[in-house]
Specification:
The protein has five helices and four strands, in the order H-H-E-E-H-E-H-E-H. The chain is α/β, with parallel strands linked by helices.
Length: about 160
């Protein structure tokens, strides 16, 4: 079995520009950015796994932009219809919104055959990259201590 992993946050791409006249006849997006080479792979794949952490209880902006670019497959051939899909999402906020976002964005329009969903509430802070872990009031640590600044150093 061959698999390809696409890390959307490493690509420079734009969301759908709504230029339907460019993709209506070809059923392929005409925007030639970093995402473009992967679109043919998505179209030809036997199955797809869409995974995204939940930022602020929702999928990432990269995933939203990516989903919007799949619009090119909705024309005459409806290329992705009934393609087997698994959704995976992990985050610190409640699962319900992430699950509903995936369903609303993908199942309704593309009519995927959802063969599985994995939504996990990790209770794990989403980042430690900025170096302000002990004082950040937006990252996962802040919510883990109930917004009690004195409790941050004790984690």
């Amino acid at each position: 079995m061959e698999a390809k992993f696409i890390n959307l946050s490493k690509l420079s791409f734009s969301p759908c520009r709504g230029c339907a006249h460019n993709c209506a006849t070809t059923a392929m997006c005409g925007v030639k950015d970093d995402l473009y080479p992967y679109l043919k792979n998505i179209q030809e794949a036997d199955a797809l796994v869409f995974a995204s952490p939940r930022h602020h209880g929702d999928m990432t902006a990269w995933m939203y932009g990516f989903f919007s670019r799949l619009w090119c497959f909705l024309h005459e051939n409806h290329t992705l219809k009934a393609k087997p899909v698994i959704f995976v999402s992990v985050g610190i906020k409640p699962i319900a919104k992430g699950r509903e976002t995936f369903r609303a964005s993908m199942i309704k329009e593309h009519e995927f055959d959802v063969i599985g969903e994995i939504f996990y509430d990790s209770k794990t802070p989403p980042c430690f990259k900025c170096g302000k872990c002990e004082t950040c009031q937006w990252g996962g640590l802040w919510s883990m201590v109930g917004e009690d600044e004195d409790a941050l150093p004790n984690l």
